[in-house]
Amino acid sequence: MKTSDDWAQQHPALKLLILFGSRARGDHDLNSDWDIAFLSDPDPKKISPWIPETDLLLTLSEHGQIPGGRIDLIDLSTCSDILTHFIAHDGQLIYKREPGEFERFRQQYLKAPAELKQYRQTQRAKVIQALERWGA
Asked: Mind giving me the DSSP string for 19-72?
């Protein structure tokens, strides 16, 4: 895998790169994909003229020796709060631009058990309402 200097040079807007999901937890199998989350600097001067996700995907495929079709790339600036929580909870750091970046991310997005319980209750209520509307 690339060194921090390599990532910084090739992807100057990249702030964080995190492996999450089954491969981060260690419960993957041979058919499991690679779930990778990234956070980029919104500064347009640092962003590639091409689609940044495409450049990142190509780098991961080439240097990580992962087939491109087996990588799910998630932009942390646009994903849901609950997905961000699980990335913070289970994620393994691949790259950080600055010291403490990953720790700050985890502090900001990890939810307390009470918050998770409330989220589950809210989602359950929504499912029940939808089932009732459908007459189930």
From this structure: EETHHHHT---TT--EEEEEEE---TTTS-SS-HHHHHHHHHHHHTT--GGGEE
Residues assigned a catalytic role: 33, 35
Q: Are 55 and 11 in contact (CB under 8 A)?
A: yes
Q: In which domain, by residue range, is 47 found?
A: 4-110
Task: Look at residue 26 and tell me if it is in a domain.
Answer: yes
Q: 20 - beta bridge partners?
A: 35
Task: State the CATH number of the domain containing residue 76.
Answer: 3.30.460.10
Distance CA 130, CA 87 (A): 28
Q: Percent of the chain at pLDDT above 90? A: 57
Q: How many structural domains compose the chain?
A: 1
Asked, for residue 120, whether it belongs to a domain, the answer is no
Q: Note whether residue 13 is domain-resident.
A: yes
In eight-state DSSP terms, residue 98 is: S
Distance CA 90, CA 31 (A): 20
Model confidence pLDDT, tens digit, residues 27-54 = 999 889 999 999 988 765 555 544 556 7
In a domain, 130, yes or no: no
